[in-house]
C-alpha cells in the first residue's frame, strides 16, 4: 500500500512538472492579451516593448480603416517620429530656435533610424506596431546637441 502511494505521488509530481514546463514552450503567445481583445493571446511585444538592439521603443495601434497595412504602418511610424521629435526637443532645449532646429534634426535622424520592428493585427482588426530606434536616448541627445552646436 505504501509503495502504491509513493508511486502515485511520484507520478503526480512528474506530471505536474511536465505540465509546468510545457507551458513555457509557447510564451510568445500566452503571456499577454491584446488590449482591444482581452481574451485573445497576443505576442509578447504587446505587453513588453523591450527588444534587444532597440533601446527606444513605442507601441502604436490603429483600428481597421481604408488604408492598406503598409500605408497604416507608414502613418503610425510618421506619427511616432513626430511625437518623439517634439517631445525630445522640448525636453532638451529651452530656446525656441534650438527647439525648432532640434525637431528638424530629430525628424531627419529618426526617419533614417526608426523602424517598425514588430507588427500584428488583433482579432478586432487593430494594427499593432512596435516601433524602435537602434540607439539609446542618450546617444540621440548627444547627436542632436552636436548637430545644433555645429550648425
UniProtKB/TrEMBL annotation:
Keywords: Signal. Residues 1-24 form the signal peptide. This is Uncharacterized protein.
